[in-house]
Specification:
The complex is a heterodimer. Chain A is of the alpha/beta class. Chain A folds into two domains: about 10-105 and about 180-455, Glycosidases (TIM Barrel), CATH 3.20.20; about 465-545, Golgi alpha-mannosidase II (Immunoglobulin-like). Chain A has 16 helices and 22 strands. Chain A has helices at about 20-25, 35-40, 40-45, 80-95, 115-120, 180-195, 220-240, 250-255, 275-285, 285-295, 320-330, 350, 355-370, 435-440, 445-455, 460-465; strands spanning about 15-20, 50-55, 100-105, 130-135, 155, 160-165, 200-205, 245, 265-270, 305-310, 315, 340, 345, 370-375, 465-470, 475-485, 485-495, 500-505, 510-515, 520, 530-535, 540-545. In chain A, the strands form five sheets. Chain A has an eight-stranded parallel beta barrel with strand order 1-2-3-7-8-9-10-14. A six-stranded antiparallel β-sheet of chain A has the order 15-16-17-22-19-20. In chain A, strands 4-6-5 form a three-stranded antiparallel β-sheet, with no helix packed on it. In chain A, helix 13 runs parallel beside helix 15. The longest helix of chain A has 18 residues, at about 220-240. The radius of gyration of chain A is 24 Å and the shape is globular. The relative contact order of chain A is 0.09. Chain B is α/β, with parallel strands linked by helices. Chain B has 18 helices and eleven strands. Chain B folds into two domains: about 5-285, Alpha-Beta Complex (Spore Coat Polysaccharide Biosynthesis Protein SpsA, Chain A), CATH 3.90.550.10; about 300-420, no CATH class. The model of chain B is unreliable at about 1-5 (pLDDT under 50). In chain B, strand 3, helix 3 (about 70-75) and strand 4 form a beta-alpha-beta unit. In chain B, strands 1-4-3-2-5-8-6-9-11 form a nine-stranded mixed β-sheet, with helices on both faces. Chain B has a two-stranded parallel ribbon with strand order 7-10. In chain B, helix 7 packs across helix 17 (about 395-410), helix 13 (about 325-330) crosses helix 14 (about 345-360) and helix 14 crosses helix 17. Chain B is about 50% helix and about 10% strand. Classes of the chains: A alpha/beta, B alpha/beta. Chains A and B meet through loops of A and helix 7, helix 10 and helix 11 of B.
Chain lengths: ~550, ~425
């Protein structure tokens, strides 16, 4: 692929997270596939996003929804072939859409040929590909992550008669990154996809690559050194515009290390922000949101946070206090089936009781806070969930395209679908679908398109600093975003009731706020407090335009003729 | 003094001044408007030039003034030449907001100078600008010699300018005018120039002078000379430095005025360009002067940003002006990384021609049309700077020449859609 646009394109991008299996079934087997995803690219382009994030697409026994990879260099047969993927990737690029895919670096499936060779012949070249031990007493300071299902991080392999190390499920043995051959092999995996034009990877479970005795075996310096080595090779070989996005569910100050000095990951998720957006909304109080930003360290200029409201997992509540978690459960998971692990397995719209204004408000914050937003497929039309499907399947149901059979997702008999479509009267596909919302100008889908289009008009959203204003009314969140010569003012009412607010904008006296969604000029700012009133969950995106803005010389004026 | 009326008749006060004058071989026309600060250096150059090169040739200074309120007119005597003074009408709007060339009513002033020179029966008229302070005595020689000795009828200037000076001229005016008139002119709107007696006679006899106050007179004169089969030369004059309090530095105004002048000329004098074939270089006199190459601060990022904002804000106007293919190509230009921004020459030529056609067919209010070109011009200029900043002088020259060739190559596109 030729390089398109700036190398730091991810700073301005909006991402769209999608399951291949859930989006569109082109071959009529009840499972979405790359051919179906390719057919749907016009929709994704028209939505106004910039980059697709594809969840695991590789051959897998699917004991962890594809995060147990059995072959890194192929496509799961249900989704198509590498050729189908290539057609999809080329078609996406033709629409100026970029694509990143999930890549699990830490471990493989126990069905992967590497593991099969490693367990059956310790003397083979694969013998040292995994972390083997004759005892299960090593690395005892490392916590067990899946406490519900795993008793130890070691499992005895009956074939090799040794223990193998696994931080996740016992069917997911950890690769041995102390072995340089493994590092080379994983780099070759990355090259396999980057050579095809892929724009980067969302790297799963990165803190656990290296183990050392007497440590937690997480976030070790050796792990960072390996990640930096990977980054340097990819930058060198692919021109510097392929990205690495880290999944590290940690506090921001811990995640900060994964950016290095701008030489490790390009992006990392901001996990603690997301639950605090929901908290702030429910409490009608700006403090949970402003507080988390005071705890967010600065990151290198070339790096970026990934922001999200929902994703394919449960709404994780690991990064909140016990008290906050209890409140979140009270507010957003009032039925036991809605909870999963330390989180809530629901989609955006039902979390917010289907309240359009709250859905739009949270999307407003997602799109205007510092970082690159990630939209989970279906949330742009307000899709519902089905908490009775087990695990996190309730938020991974087929995309709702129309009111046709199987929501227009597949032509198969409905019993053959990989998961049933949402069919309840409120969020079911007959009420919530792309076709209907496309035709309705005021639909959530069209509102999302307008918000995304407005976001594209300014690089401030992706690149600007943030400065919270502190109005007396704590129900109103107001912040300035600044980049270069441009300043934006975002004002959002977290309350379900109309709210007045007075903002100290004296520093901008003389400027005129231009509302960006309706292109309406508001009264000029004076030294006195600036008064605004906001409807329930209402918000404004203002560009502050000063007289003479744009009059700075280009350097060619005096001699242009 | 009284105002000069449009037409070959001269005002009575000018007539009276001519009656007392001896026959002259050379005339120098100086068009002025509040140039007291700079006229002395221009007069000094005139005096030195005549002393050195034309000491034996009787000469007259013709001043056409737009109503200066300072000491401009008084300082003209410093040239040491017999002086004819005239005042010409200038539209009130041009007195309030002086046009890009610094002289309100320049067309009327030019006609006055041409008519007086013709009446005096000179062999050559040199027209100078009163605020160009880099003028030397050599300029007079280089302008006059081709007329006096080489049979030139019109001598146009070529100034040695910094590679990023004159971006409107290099990227729009010169390629457009050269393609229209079929003569490669480097600086078609730069002021200093020389006319032969034959051209003066042709011009005085012309019934189609542009209306008083229009900025297209210089272009019309060049077109008349080229269309009439007269000989055009260029004179290399060295560096060009202007000290003016009245010339605008507002880019939209400059673009609107200069390009508006060309489009208006195209509209009113189709016969001067529609049937004209491909361009030929014109002979250039004088030693080549190496232009200044000192580093300059040009904010390419902002220029690309302005282009991007144009895409966002002016799309509804451009949809009316640009052909669908042109618009599609413009919308496809990648602005994400200013350092990699490109704007191909052929696309640029089509953009300018589409604007000319939009002006011709009045698809939108003409002033809006002209000003909406500014972001496109900024984008094209940014691309030019990016493409040439690592090149040597010859490389820059070839980049400029490539723009000329694109306009020439695309001219049939314009002609086909004009009729």
């Amino acid at each position: 692929m030729t390089s398109r646009g700036p190398r730091d394109w991810y700073k301005d991008a909006v991402f769209y997270e999608v399951h291949v299996k859930a989006f569109k079934d082109a071959n009529g087997d009840g499972i979405g596939d790359f051919a179906g995803l390719t057919e749907s690219l016009d929709y994704i382009q028209e939505l106004g996003v910039d980059c697709l994030w594809i969840l695991p697409m590789y051959p897998s026994p699917l004991r962890d929804d594809g995060y147990d990879i059995a072959d890194f260099n192929a496509i799961h047969p249900s989704y198509g072939t590498v050729e189908d993927f290539q057609k999809f990737l080329d078609a996406a690029h033709a629409r100026d859409l970029r694509v990143i895919t999930d890549l699990v670096m830490n471990h493989t499936s126990d069905q992967h040929p590497w593991f099969q060779a490693s367990r059956s012949d310790p003397t083979s070249r694969y013998g040292d590909y995994y972390v083997w031990s004759t005892t299960d007493r090593r690395f005892t300071d490392a916590r067990i992550i899946f406490v519900d299902t795993e008793k130890s991080n070691w499992t005895l392999d009956p074939v090799r008669r040794e223990y193998y190390w696994h931080r996740f499920f016992s069917h997911q043995p950890d690769l041995n990154y102390d072995n340089p051959t493994v590092r080379r092999a994983m780099l070759d995996v990355m090259r396999f996809w980057l050579d095809r034009g892929l724009d980067g990877f969302r790297c799963d479970a990165v803190p656990y690559l290296v183990e050392r005795e007497g440590t937690s075996c997480e976030n070790l310096p050796e792990t960072h050194a390996i990640l930096k080595e990977f980054r340097a090779v990819i930058d060198h070989e692919y021109g510097g515009d392929r990205i690495l996005l880290a999944e590290a569910n940690q506090w921001p100050e811990d995640v900060r290390h994964y950016f290095g000095n701008g030489d490790e990951f390009h992006m990392a998720f901001h996990f603690p922000l997301m639950p605090r957006l929901y908290l702030g909304l429910r409490l009608e109080d700006t403090r949970p949101i402003t507080d988390i930003f005071t705890q967010t360290p600065a990151i290198p200029a070339a790096c970026q946070w990934g922001l999200f409201l929902r994703n394919h997992d449960e709404l994780t509540l690991e990064m909140v206090t016990n008290e906050e978690r209890a409140f979140m459960y009270y507010a957003y998971a009032y039925e036991p089936d809605m909870k999963l692990n330390l989180g809530i397995r629901r989609r955006l719209a039902p979390l917010l009781d289907g309240d359009r204004r709250r859905v739009e408000l949270l999307n407003c914050l997602l799109l205007t806070l510092p970082g690159s937003p990630i939209i989970y497929y279906g949330d742009e039309i307000g899709m519902g969930d089905n908490v009775y499907l087990g695990d996190r399947n309730g938020v991974r149901t087929p995309m709702q395209w129309s009111r046709d059979r199987n929501a227009g997702f597949s032509s198969v008999e409905s019993g053959q679908l990989y998961l049933p479509v949402i069919a309840d009267p409120v969020y079911g596909y007959e009420a919530v679908n792309v076709a209907a919302q496309t035709r309705q100008p005021s639909s959530l889908l069209n509102t999302m398109r307008r918000l995304l289009a407005a976001r594209k008009t300014s690089s401030v959203f992706g690149r600007g600093s943030i400065e919270f204003l502190r109005p007396r009314n704590a129900k109103v969140l107001a912040y300035l975003r600044r980049h270069a010569r441009e300043t934006l003012l975002i004002v959002a009412n977290l309350s379900a009731a109309p709210q007045p607010v007075e903002l100290d904008l004296a520093a901008f006296a003389g400027a005129t706020p231009l509302e960006m969604l309706g292109a309406t000029s508001f009264p000029t700012i004076r030294k006195e407090p600036y008064f605004l009133s906001l409807g329930p969950h209402g918000f404004y995106w203002f560009r502050l335009e000063r007289p003479g803005d744009g009059d700075e010389p280009f350097g060619i004026e005096r001699t242009a003729i | 003094m009284s105002a000069v009326a449009v037409g070959p008749e001269l005002p009575s006060d000018v007539d009276r001044q001519l009656e007392g004058l001896p026959a002259a071989e050379l005339a120098v026309g100086v068009l002025t408007y509040n140039n007291a600060a700079t006229v002395p250096s221009v007069m000094d150059a005139v005096r030195k030039g005549f002393e050195k090169h034309f000491a034996a040739a009787p000469a007259v200074l013709i001043n056409a003034d737009a109503g200066s309120s300072d000491a401009t007119v008084d300082r003209l005597a410093e040239a040491g030449l017999p002086l004819v003074r005239a005042h010409h009408d200038a539209p009130a709007v041009q007195l309030g907001a002086v046009p890009f060339h610094g002289v309100p009513g320049r067309g009327a002033a030019m006609r006055l100078a041409v008519t007086v020179a013709r009446r005096l029966g000179v062999r050559a008229l040199l027209v100078l600008e009163a605020d160009v302070t880099s003028i030397t005595g050599e300029w007079l020689e280089r302008l006059a010699r081709p007329v006096l000795e080489q049979g030139a009828d019109l001598v146009m200037p070529v100034h040695a300018r910094h590679r990023y000076d004159g971006t409107i001229t290099n990227l729009v005016l010169a390629p457009l005018v050269s393609a229209l008139l079929g003569r490669r002119l480097h600086q078609p709107l730069s002021g200093p120039r020389a006319f032969s007696a034959r051209l003066l006679e042709r011009l005085v006899g012309e019934a189609r002078w542009p209306e008083s106050g229009r900025s297209m007179t210089d272009l019309w004169i060049a077109g008349t000379a080229a269309g009439g089969g007269l000989t055009i030369h260029e004179a290399r004059l060295g560096r060009w430095r202007v000290e003016s309090n009245t010339r605008t530095t507002d880019l939209p105004t400059m673009v609107a005025q200069t390009l508006g002048a060309v489009f208006a000329m195209m509209e009113e004098y189709e016969d001067l360009w529609l049937g004209v074939g491909s361009g030929s270089p014109v002979p250039a006199e004088g030693p080549p002067v190496v232009p200044s190459d000192e580093p300059v601060q040009i904010d390419v990022d902002r220029m690309v940003g302005a282009f991007g904002r144009g895409l966002r804000d002016l799309g509804t106007i451009w949809e009316h002006v640009l052909a669908p293919d042109t618009l599609g190509d413009v919308l496809s230009l990648e602005t994400g990384d200013p350092e990699r921004f490109r704007f191909p020459d052929d696309l640029w030529a089509r953009v300018v021609y589409d604007f000319a056609l939009g002006y011709h067919w009045s698809v939108v209010y003409r002033d809006h049309l002209l000003r909406s070109l500014v972001p496109l011009y900024l984008g094209r200029t940014a691309a030019f700077v990016l493409a040439t900043r690592g090149r040597d002088a010859a490389g820059v020259e070839s980049a400029v020449a490539a723009v000329d060739q694109s306009f020439e190559r695309q001219k049939p596109y314009l002609v086909d859609r004009w009729r």
